Amino acid sequence: MKLYEKLADEITEAVRRGVFAAGERIPSVRQASQQHGVSIKTVLHAYALLENRGIVETRPQSGYFVREAAARSVALDEPQPGRLPAHQTQPVAAAVDVSRLVLSTLRSIRAHDAVPFGSPYPDPSLFPWRRINQYANAIARRQASWDLIDDLPPGNAELIRQIARRYAENGVPVDPGEIIITLGATEAINLSLQAVAKPGDTVAVESPTYYAMLHAIERLGMRAIEVATHPVQGIDVEALARVIAEQKIAACMVMPNFQNPLGFCMPDARKRQLVDLLAAHEIPVIENDVYQELYFGETRPSTLKNFDTKGLVLHCASFSKSLTASYRIGWALPGRYRAQVEKLKFLNTLTTPSVPQVAVADYLRQDGYDRHLRHVRKVYRQQASIMMAMVQRFFPAGTRMSTPQGGYVLWVELPERVDSMRLYQAALARSITVGPGMMFSTRNDFRHFIRLNYSYPWTAQTEAALKTLGELVTRMA
User: Fold this and answer.
1) Are residue 359 and residue 378 in the same domain, yes or no?
2) Which stretches does DSSP call E strand in 113-194?
3) Which of 361, 370, 245 is nearest to 295 (CA)?
4) Domain that holds residue 450
5) What does pTM read for this prediction?
6) What is the count of structural domains for the chain?
7) Which of 349, 369, 389 is where one domain is finished?
8) b/e sequence 338-354, b meaning 16+ C-beta within 10 Å
9) For residue 56, what is the domain's CATH number?
10) 129 to each of 134, 137, 322, 394, how far by Cα in Å?
11) Range 127-134 contact pairs with CB under 8 angstroms and sequence separation of 24 or more
12) From the first residue on, what is the mean pLDDT of each consecutive set of 10 residues in the chain (477 residues)?
């Protein structure tokens, strides 16, 4: 990150936290230069960027001042927006039927050459897919066809070793013998759920939750019960305890790190509390950690697996969000359910193609995966900051948003009168896509929410599209 961008981000954060109030003058160019130990030219660049973001404005002969709109609190620091409505005192288990909505929405997004704010996929241009394809082509050339028979479960031994090594390097020692390679994290989640629950069972999920979790529940004929989820702290463990006390829960499914769509990272104390609660009731928990490598902080966060002493955590992840989406290489660490998951893998899809496994293993062994990840994290962190500032600038009063700590999606609460499905249709007519909030729940609690993807390059076109989106929201509000 360039010095002026860093300085602009620091001032933006200070405004967000209320250090600089609406209409208040920020330090002069000379003062900022002295305070931060940077050149006057750097400060001028930073202040120009802040003006462009709509955070500050210049007043002749007076200096730079915080804009009124920029000073509105836009972070979801209070629990209510991310929770079920206050009047809903008792969560109710419900049949799941979101697949048709999600499928039609994703088809529309894919079928239109539109600004991909609604895309669930990261920008592929950031991934080293050409390099991985080179490995795959080299493997196909050097090995005879009989050597390329797909690996039976648990999967390619070298890939399993490389995955275990990465966990060990990040302070999560795992047994390589526990790892099962899957067709992306989606298959890992489906196999894990199938291993711990049966049709008709009730599964506890976050609210809102990632729709792939709901798909798994729907596919297997189970019921979902949504548990209040704080936009910063994660699933409400006390609320979950009350649900467990009142009805039979077969399993729990959560995304503790950079949850989609809220973007939070559960604090370690909450993760431990969650694991301890479920362990006390012998309830397995499926942990979707697909965004594990996309953190904005200095170190990779802990997982529920770190606190698991009973083998009840079924940890699922993949390379689809951090390395390559086209090869769909995922894995599961199913704890005490390993044998069941391995058997189900064999019965469901038999194998995972061998060449992609070997190609990814070769890349992990020989290329700069960590260097690649540092670049991706930097880009996502910068673009998250830009999109948050632009939403704050272009959207009407009453708009609030999450504060992502990793990943590449932003959760936006619109004024209550705005219907996100109507907004989705109106935006699509203008070649702009959004993720309507109704995809992330079995209920109607998030009809005035949308999810935005900030992984794609920020250009004049994307800025104009977000401005148009803000105008649509303003009219609907």
Assistant:
1) no
2) 180-183
3) 370
4) 80-89+97-126+371-476
5) 0.80
6) 3
7) 369
8) bebbbebbeeeeebbbb
9) 1.10.10.10
10) 9, 12, 11, 35
11) 127/323, 127/324, 127/325, 128/323, 128/324, 128/363, 128/367, 128/372, 129/324, 129/326, 131/363, 131/367, 132/323, 132/324, 132/327, 132/359, 132/360, 132/363, 133/359
12) 85 75 86 86 89 84 80 42 38 67 67 82 90 88 60 91 89 89 96 97 96 91 94 95 96 97 95 98 98 92 95 97 91 98 93 90 91 95 93 93 94 95 91 92 91 94 96 96
In whole angstroms, give the CA distance from residue 155 to residue 347.
Answer: 14
**SS3 sequence of 407-451:** CCEEEEECCCCCCHHHHHHHHHCCCECCEEHHHHCCCCCCCCEEE
Q: Which amino acid is at 149?
A: I
| Residues 243, 393: Cα–Cα separation, whole Å | 40
State which amino acid sits at residue 179.
Answer: I
326 lies in the same domain as 404: no
Which CATH number goes with the domain that contains 305? 3.40.640.10
Instruction: State how far the alpha carbon of 183 is from the alpha carbons of 299, 320, 327, in Å.
Output: 27, 10, 8
Kindly state whether residues 222 and 248 are assigned to the same domain: yes
Tokens of 293: 């490598």
Tell me how far apart the terminal alpha carbons of the chain are, to the nearest angstrom.
37
358 and 462, same domain (yes or no): no
Measured between alpha carbons, how far is 101 from 107 in angstroms, rounded to an integer?
Answer: 10
Contact, 153 vs 351, CB < 8 A? yes
Domain end, chosen from 309, 337, 369, is at 369
Q: How many CB atoms lie within 10 A of CB 38?
A: 17
Q: Residues with Cβ < 8 Å from 40, sequence gap 6 or more?
A: 29, 30, 33
Residue position matching structure tokens 């490389």: 162
pLDDT for 260: 96
Q: Are residues 106 and 134 in the same domain?
A: no
Query: For residue 230, what are the β-bridge partners?
Result: 234
Tell me the residue type at 90.
Q
What is residue 301's DSSP assignment? P
Do 213 and 161 fall within a single domain? Answer: yes
